[in-house]
Every structure is written in structure tokens, then in C-alpha cells.
Automatic annotation (TrEMBL):
<keyword id="KW-0336">GPI-anchor</keyword>
<dbReference type="GO" id="GO:0010215">
    <property type="term" value="P:cellulose microfibril organization"/>
</dbReference>
<keyword id="KW-0732">Signal</keyword>
<dbReference type="GO" id="GO:0098552">
    <property type="term" value="C:side of membrane"/>
</dbReference>
<dbReference type="GO" id="GO:0052324">
    <property type="term" value="P:plant-type cell wall cellulose biosynthetic process"/>
</dbReference>
<keyword id="KW-0449">Lipoprotein</keyword>
<comment type="similarity">
    <text>Belongs to the COBRA family.</text>
</comment>
<keyword id="KW-1133">Transmembrane helix</keyword>
<feature type="domain" description="COBRA C-terminal">
    <location>
        <begin position="232"/>
        <end position="424"/>
    </location>
</feature>
<dbReference type="InterPro" id="IPR056900">
    <property type="entry name" value="COB_C"/>
</dbReference>
<dbReference type="InterPro" id="IPR006918">
    <property type="entry name" value="COBRA_pln"/>
</dbReference>
<feature type="transmembrane region" description="Helical">
    <location>
        <begin position="436"/>
        <end position="455"/>
    </location>
</feature>
<keyword id="KW-0812">Transmembrane</keyword>
<dbReference type="GO" id="GO:0005886">
    <property type="term" value="C:plasma membrane"/>
</dbReference>
<feature type="signal peptide">
    <location>
        <begin position="1"/>
        <end position="36"/>
    </location>
</feature>
<dbReference type="Pfam" id="PF25079">
    <property type="entry name" value="COB_C"/>
</dbReference>
<dbReference type="Pfam" id="PF04833">
    <property type="entry name" value="COBRA"/>
</dbReference>
Length: 456
């Protein structure tokens, strides 16, 4: 872009066009791929499979199953809610393993009253402890679905639905439209239902295969940009070779505004805190965070701890600043080029993720069952930690220019706010620490150009 800074340019229009070009380029760098899709789990989705198991005099009985094919993103409490719009005037006669949130207007029916008559029903999961005669397989977990990698046995949720006023053959049935999935808030976008090959089922003795009469799938994908207006976690950094502790960016997840919105955060010594800890308000899923400069419910701290001849060691600490939530089955995803030589991990589970096929630079970490798989609410016990031992690759390893710190970190599937690279702890003898950022350089050049044109 050297032509934009040529001192021979005199045309104001050229100066304006160059300025617009620079602003455009800078704005492009401010958006990440995670706002469109998950860059570390590009194929992750929730697939809703709708299997018609039998025909009835006025419709059908179907089993609806949601499969969480995301590697590390759960659907957490208070759980999922699934909605759609009927194509005709269908009603739901009965359900097992789930229920609609509203019955709707069923006044046109005499005698037997349907479970739901709404044109656009919303279904939720039943709670644990539901009587057995109202359950089916994979139901009744309060809407919680764990991720495919961390807990595959609990990565699906099902309910059975009896539909009336519908077609009675696979040529007359009309597919529902406008599927929505909340988990429990926004974030998922669902595509249209598509007819696929009927699902096949194998009996327990493996000797007989049956199949659904008709099957359609709906695929829902997640966007953190749609899910929440502000981030939910941030990253801080430190190292043994520098006394500087790089804190989470200020206002990373919002700014303190107790003056205009009392109760947006709580000081650690506040009298109000006692009522929260004793149980008041714990049923609310709205975060109540400790007052900090970053205002994030979760902080992940990456500390470069030790340097050996052939190895180097990192300590990772996850701290919960949310007074209203224990994080069950939490997980952490970190991206760093040395994960291809991770030698040992202490007190965390580990699985290598390869979102870019041959490149092994992404790791999923989560707690050991019954030991540290529960991240307690804010307070003295509200943290978990582990250490990672890496073997050095002599061709790439260095402590210079922030190489030892992660490229990105996710907590429970949400991309955490990283500090600015220019703030990373640098080696004491590193003379290459930048005193001016690229953005500052651009702004300085633009100011100089404006000055030159003003007196040209």
C-alpha cells in the first residue's frame, strides 16, 4: 500500500480514497471467524432426527432425537427448548419424555383434548425423577446435553410425540418448518428439514434390524456472536522470565456500572454477598459476578512456569467469578503450536483436536471425574488448575515475541478475550518489544498526511 503514502499525491480525492481503504482494511481485521462459525470445530452441529415409528388413524407416532455433534460445547442448565411451525393444522395428542410449554386453544375438540394445539409449539425436556411410564431412552435430563467428545453417552436427548390431523403416509405427511433451538438462550440457527434415508435400528441381540417409516433431519449450528452481546471469559498471562502479570483486558466482558445498575457485580466484602452464598438468588441463571476490572464470569490464567533443557512447563488456572453458578463438566480448549509435543498432563483429561486435519495444535482439557470436574462458584474453592509439560521442538521453540502463550482459548465453547499481543510478557533482554502498535502507526501516518495536505 505504498502508493497511499506517496508525498507527491496532491489530490484530496485520492487522499480520501486511501483513508477509506485503510479504514476498511482495519475494520476487516476486527472481525474473527468465530463470529460466523466455530473455527476450532468447523463441523460441529446439533442434528435433530425425526423418525416416524408408526402410523395412527389421523397421523403418526415419532421419536425426535437431538444429537450434539459438537466436540466441546454443551447445552447447559436450564436446558434446551425446541420449536417449529406445523405445515398444516397438526396437533400433538400426547408426548413422552418431553412436554410443550403451552397447550394452546383446543376448544374445537370434544372429548379427548390434545396435549398441544398451538401452530408453533415449543418443547422442553422433562426433569430427572420423571415417572418411568412417562420416560423414553435419552430423556428426562432437564434439557442438559453434554458434548460429543467429553461425554458421548450423554450427548443425545429424545422425546416421543403422537401427532394428529397429519398425513398418514410418507407421501401425505408435510414436514414442519421454521425450527428454532434455544440452549437455553439464542445462538443456534437451524436449517430446513430434509428427508433422508429411514433410520435403521438393531435389536439388543444384534439379530434383527428394523427401520423407521420415514425420517427427516434438521441441522442447527452455533454462533457465539448471536449467543450473547458480551464475552463470558478472558485470559491473563504471566511467565517466570518477567515480573509482569498481564491481566485480562479492562471491560473484557463489560464494565462496572453499579452506579446506574445496582447489583451488576458484587464486591468480595459486600454484605449482599452473604445472602447470595447462603442460597438467595441461586436459582437465577443470570451471572452475578465479582467486581473486577474485566467483569468476566471466568478467567483463564496461563503461566509459563519452568524451562528445562528439553522440556518446558505451563500452569493453567481457571477461576470462577460467578456467584450463582457451579460449572459442571466444564472444559477448556487451547490452541498452541507445541500441543503436538504435549508430554504429560497433571490432573486434567486431554484430547487432541485437529480442526485443520494435519495440524495438531489444538487441545481439549477437562476435569477428572469426582475430582475437579466441578468448578465451584466464586469464592475460596472457585478454581481448578493443572500443569502441562511440553517437549521442545528445537526448530520452532522460543520464548521470544510471546510464542509461549496460547493463540486462542475457549471455555465451555465460548471464545475468551485475549490480551493484546503487544502487552505479552517479553524476555528481559528482548529489544524488540514494540513501543507503538500497528494501529497507532497507521493513525500517526494518516495524521501526518492530513497535516501535509492542509499546508500543501
Amino acid at each position: 500500500m505504498g502508493f497511499c503514502f506517496s508525498p507527491t499525491i496532491r489530490s484530496v480525492s485520492k487522499f480520501t480514497s486511501c483513508t477509506i481503504l485503510l479504514v476498511f482494511l482495519l475494520s476487516c481485521t476486527s472481525f474473527t471467524a468465530t463470529e460466523a462459525y466455530d473455527a476450532l470445530d468447523p463441523n460441529g452441529n446439533i442434528t435433530i432426527k425425526w423418525d416416524i415409528m408408526s402410523w395412527t388413524p389421523d397421523g403418526y407416532v415419532a421419536v425426535v432425537t437431538m444429537f450434539n455433534f459438537q466436540q466441546y460445547r454443551h447445552i447447559q442448565a436450564p436446558g434446551w427448548s425446541l420449536g417449529w411451525t406445523w405445515a398444516k393444522k397438526e396437533v400433538i395428542w400426547s408426548m413422552m419424555g418431553g412436554q410443550t410449554t403451552e397447550q394452546g386453544d383446543c376448544s374445537r375438540f370434544k372429548g379427548n383434548v390434545p396435549h398441544c394445539c398451538k401452530k408453533d409449539p415449543t418443547v422442553v425436556d422433562l426433569l430427572p425423577g420423571t415417572p418411568y411410564n412417562q420416560q423414553i431412552a435419552n430423556c428426562c435430563k432437564g434439557g442438559v446435553i453434554n458434548s460429543w467428545v467429553q461425554d458421548p453417552a450423554n450427548a443425545a436427548s429424545s422425546f416421543q410425540i403422537s401427532v394428529g390431523a397429519a398425513g398418514t403416509t410418507n407421501k401425505t405427511v408435510k414436514l414442519p418448518k421454521n425450527f428454532t433451538l434455544k440452549a437455553p438462550g439464542p445462538g443456534y440457527t437451524c436449517g430446513p428439514a430434509k428427508i433422508v434415508k429411514p433410520t435403521k435400528f438393531v435389536t439388543a441381540d444384534q439379530r434383527r434390524v428394523t427401520q423407521a417409516l420415514m425420517t427427516w433431519n434438521v441441522t442447527c449450528t452455533y454462533s457465539q456472536f448471536l449467543s450473547q452481546k458480551t464475552p463470558t471469559c478472558c485470559v491473563s498471562l504471566s511467565s517466570f522470565y518477567n515480573d509482569t502479570i498481564v491481566s485480562c483486558p479492562t471491560c473484557a466482558c463489560g464494565c462496572q456500572n453499579n452506579a446506574t445498575q445496582p447489583g451488576s457485580c458484587v464486591e468480595a466484602d459486600s454484605p449482599y454477598l452473604a445472602s447470595v452464598v447462603s442460597g438467595s438468588g441461586k436459582n437465577s441463571y443470570t451471572p452475578l459476578v465479582q467486581c473486577t476490572k474485566h467483569m468476566c464470569p471466568i478467567r483463564v490464567h496461563w503461566h509459563v512456569k519452568l524451562n528445562y533443557k528439553d522440556y518446558w512447563r505451563v500452569k493453567v488456572t481457571i477461576t470462577n467469578f460467578n456467584y450463582r453458578m457451579n460449572y459442571t463438566q466444564w472444559n477448556l480448549v487451547a490452541q498452541h503450536p507445541n500441543f503436538d509435543n504435549l508430554t504429560q498432563l497433571f490432573s486434567f483429561n486431554y484430547k487432541s483436536l485437529t480442526p485443520y486435519a494435519a495440524i495438531n495444535d489444538t487441545a481439549m482439557l477437562w476435569g477428572v471425574k469426582f475430582y475437579n470436574d466441578l468448578l465451584m462458584e466464586a469464592g475460596p474453592l472457585g478454581n481448578v488448575q493443572s500443569e502441562l509439560l511440553f517437549q521442545k521442538d528445537k526448530s520452532t521453540f522460543t520464548f521470544e515475541k510471546g510464542w509461549a502463550f496460547p493463540r486462542r482459548i475457549y471455555f465451555n465453547g465460548d471464545n475468551c478475550v485475549m490480551p493484546s499481543p503487544e502487552d505479552y510478557p517479553w524476555l528481559p533482554n528482548a529489544g524488540s518489544h514494540p513501543d507503538i502498535s500497528l494501529l497507532t502507526l497507521f493513525m500517526t501516518i494518516l495524521s501526518a498526511m492530513a497535516f501535509l495536505y492542509a499546508y500543501a
